[in-house]
Amino acid sequence: MSESALRIRGLRKAFPKVVAVAGVDLEVARGEVFGLLGPNGAGKTTTLEMIEGLTLPDAGEIEVLGRTWAREGKEIRARIGVQLQSTSLFNRITVREALDLYGTYYPKARTTADLLDLVQLNDKADAYHVTLSGGQQQRLALALALVNDPELVFLDEPTTGLDPQARRSLWDVVRRMKAEGRTVLLTTHYMEEAEALCDRLAIMDHGQVIAAGTPASLIAQLAIPSVVELTFDGDAPDPAAFAARLGGPVEQRADLWEIPTRDPKALLPRLLETAESEGVPYQQVHVRRATLEDVFLHQTGRSLRD
Amino acid sequence: MLMMIWRQFVMEWKLYLRDKGAMFWTFAFPVVMLLGFGIIFRGGGGPKLTVVYVQPAAQSTRDAALLKAMEEVQLKVLPLAPAEAEARWAHGETAAEVLPEGEGYRIRLNSYLMAQGGPTAGLVNQAWLLAQARLNGSPEPRRIPVSVESPGGKKASNYAAFLLPGLLGLNLLSIGLFSVGMVNVSYREKGKFRRLAVTPLPKWIFLLGQVLQRLTISLAQAVVLLIVGWLAFGIRNQGSYLDLVVVMTLGTACFMSFGFALSGFAETSETYAAIANLFFFPLMLLSGVYFTLDSAPHWLQRSVAFLPLSPFLSTLRAVFNDGAGLAGHGMGLLVVGAWALGAFLIAVRRFRWN
Q: Are residues A44 and A131 in the same domain?
């Protein structure tokens, strides 16, 4: 049981117009929640689909629960749980029927009552799939991914498109999976989700892993642990002149400027003075610790949701 | 294994029965067609042809004789005053009209409606010969006697009996193209196949469950149509039921494989719908579902004999309407079988889960 839940070496996949995955190495230990973080088109889903046996890699090795697709595909399928980016079911299948039916696909299955409890869909058990809200459909998709009591669970953007409340309720289910001792590999482009759920994560961009580690260690790796924000009423003005006077980088983002710094205490008086003399019409000043968002911005020069 | 196929089969049926709209249309459409056309063409000869008769200022004995003769040759005569007749003509509603002209008459035919106009003109002329003979006091012209029989020489049957096998074939074609082909494209497009692919369920079990369900739908449809045909028009299978089952099974295999094969050529439901209609409408219109093609050009008749629906329907009609055995229809069965096999091979080659 000490072996890794997942081991990937040199994974590559090119499509006719784009190299989706350009050499990815990953190792996920048993019992951890591992996040693949990155913007749309970073190669997260393609990576996941190769691991799930849906897409054949051009090159590289994949070992799932110590087994390989070529020789033990059927056994892998029986021991993993998968939530695809969008789970399409029949419109007029009820929640209970879907769980019962998928249960029959596996050698061993959890009871439907148990699964309904887990994802809190008891009162929707006899509703048609088509009548469920987005959050309920995602919870059903999670329950389907757990129907075979899997050791390793893959969740592809489980909370994309959900409202904040539905998102929290999904996080609870993921935490319960971890508490039950399952290994979880999830993709997301929400920084706060990665910080809230993941023991370790890998940041992907352009088909490659550009940074990996625990959320804290990734932030600690940043040379710049703090960020000063000047917020504006409406769009932020061009910071070029201000940056020149200040003598440091200023990021312009929607309605605010971000000024990364090692020493906010020393920066602040000088910054306010410069803003005053330049007549910068800022509204408020915030000082915050750097987040994964800043890690990503720092690594790629782009924001996550661009 | 059998249990898993059975579960898929039962679930497909449950889902089908819940889609009341789709179910209603798949069952009601052929029944409505059969009842509708069967009743309209009940007499066997179709509805009477209508001719507009433009009334002269004063009716002569000659006019009266022509009118009477036109009734006798089974024309539906619509006498109208010149202004009314002209208005009807201008609206394009008139296929044929008889106008008084000089010492006689003129027949005016609508160039768009020659299918009705042509035979109408023939009948008017026949009536005119009859009227002239009577006016001259000559003996009544003798007509060639007409007898109506079904081609196989069994009980004379009506248009509904001709139509019923056509609708059975059309059902198979539409189930194959739409319930099988279309559904598979949409499953692939929406990722239903992908969700199945990450489970240990062998995918052929899913497909087999689906195919068996479509098979039972087409069987149920056939039974419903046969019962309606029997109750409403007294149409019964004149041949052996074994032969009927053989032909229907071959046809089902052929058109389902056809749908499967086509589904391998489209990425999206929209593309598939376009491709499927490209096959559906010509096959429906050119294969003798509703009428025979005996007035179509020879090359067209020869060509459709190599498409799957036409030989299927002639064989089905031979068995069902004329009680013929399969021996004389080897060529037709061969063509349908070749399509079934070819489509199956293409389906297997082109089928994709992703």
A: yes
> Of A183, A201, A219, at which residue does a domain stop?
A219
Helix, strand or coil, per DSSP, at residue A199:
coil
Complex ipTM more than 0.85, yes or no? no
Count of CB atoms situated within 10 Å of the CB of B242: 10
| pLDDT tens digits, B103-113 | 889 999 999 98
Q: What single letter denotes the amino acid at residue B19? A: D
Domain of A265, in residue numbers: 223-289
| Residue B41 reports pLDDT greater than 80 | no
Task: List pLDDT tens digits, range A268-304.
Answer: 888 888 888 888 888 899 888 888 777 777 777 666 5
CB-CB neighbors (< 8 A) of B192 in chain A: 88-90
Cβ-defined contact of B4 to A104 (cutoff 8 Å) = yes
Asked if A87's CB is within 8 angstroms of B195's CB, the reply is yes
List of residues 6+ apart from B98 with CB closer than 8 A = B51, B52, B53, B54, B66, B105, B106, B107, B124
Q: What's the gap in Å between the CA of B341 and the closest CA on chain A?
A: 30
For residues A80 and A90, give the distance between their C-alpha atoms in angstroms, rounded to a whole number. Answer: 22
Q: How far is A112 from chain B (nearest CA, A)?
A: 17
What are the residue boundaries of the structural domains of chain B, listed by start?
2-41+158-350, 50-136
My answer on whether A166 and A262 are in the same domain is: no
Closest CA to A67 of A147, A5, A24: A5
Whether residue A303 is contained in a domain is answered as: no
A80 in B contact zone (CB under 8 Å): yes
C-beta separation of B294 from B300 below 8 A? no
For chain B positions 180-209, those within 8 Å of chain A (CB to CB) are 187, 190-192, 194-201
Mean pLDDT of chain B: 88
Residue A89 resides in a domain = yes
Write down the architecture of domain B50-136 according to CATH: 3-Layer(aba) Sandwich (3.40)
Domain holding A196: CATH number? 3.40.50.300
Q: Does B269 touch chain A (CB under 8 A)?
A: no
CB contact under 8 A, A87 and B15: no
The tokens describing B329, both together, are 């229809």
How many domains does chain A divide into?
A: 2
